[in-house]
Each structure stands twice: as structure tokens, then as C-alpha cells.
Amino acid sequence: MMMIKSIESKIRLATFLSLGSFLLCLAVVATVSFFAYRYVKDSRKSIYILDPSGTPILAKQTDVQLNRAAEYRAHIAKFHSLFFSLVPDDKFIEYQMKQAMYLVDESGALQYNNLKEKGFFTSILSSSAVLTLRTDSIFLDEKRMYFRYYGTQKIDRRSSSITRSLITEGNLVDLETRSDNNPHAVLITRWKTLENRDISTIEKNAFQ
């Protein structure tokens, strides 16, 4: 009887040891796999570039989200510059508007069509006006994906120089891929102008 109990105890002990060894192996494998995955992931962020002499130089990739706010602001500034910085050249205006439309949804096309119907672009050509835009500030709420743009627009005509205050707002949507026409992979949505008013007008001497 004692021998049977001894055998049963040894069997239980052997079972516990086997189970413990198995669980320990699983833990070791899981730990090694985790660190191997981390290592591979980190190594993919390291790339080598060649300098003019052909020597490889280690470069580090940065997480796109770390600099996303700066990209959003750059995208917003670029769109407004394309849309509001114009010269009296119909081909140039057409090009600017085409490039701007890659950065905005149908709300941008709606504003463009409204300005076109009101003869805004025709007046630029007829008065030889040069429009320039300066970005003053961009308020960005990343959680809501909302922005408000503050800028100063200057309209230089033969007869006068007008300075306008420009305020617009809209939302942002991330795109899956980048392209030459939209390098930041962002789309402005629900864009509208809140203010576009004259703040000063300087008359020019017609004989100059």
C-alpha cells in the first residue's frame, strides 16, 4: 500500500514538474518573442542613406504622429496660400485653384464657384490686381480635428492697395496615402470663411 502511494506521489510530482516546465517554457517563448518583435520594430525605424562619397549613414525614422500637428498647420497654410495668393493671369489662377482643390473637399469648390459667379477672378484680371496672403496664426484642436485660420490679405491694384483681415474655419480628415498633390495626406472639410473685411485702403497716385 505504501509503495502504491509513493508511486502516486511521484507521478503527481512528475506531472506538476512537467506542467511547470511547460508553463515556464511558454513564458520564456512569449518574453523572447515580445522583445524580438520590439527589436525588429525599432530596427525598421533605422534606415541607411548614402552620402556623396558612397558612405552609408544611419538615419532614424520618426513616428508620423509626433509631428502631425505641424503637418496639419502646413497643410492649412498651403491651401490658403494657393486659394488667396493670386496674380492677374488666368492660367496661373486656374493652376492655383486646381492645386488647392486637392487639399479640400467640395466646400472649397463651392467657395470657388461662388467667387467665380460674382466675377471675383475677372476683376483680378481687369484691374491687374496682385493678391498676397500672410498667415498670422492657426488655431488647431487635434481632438476635434478642427482649425481656425487667421491671415492678412493684401490686394495691390493700380489705383489702390487694400489690406484685409481673413478668418476661416474647417475640419480635417486624415487620408490613408500621401501623394504629390497632397503630401500631408490630409483633407480640409466643411471649410468656410468667417471674415474677409477691409481693414485699410491706401490710394495710389495715378500719375506714378
TrEMBL record:
InterPro entries, per the entry: Conjug_transposon_TraK
Family matches, as NCBIfam families: Bac_Flav_CT_K
Protein name, as recorded: Conjugative transposon protein TraK
Organism annotation: Pedobacter jeongneungensis
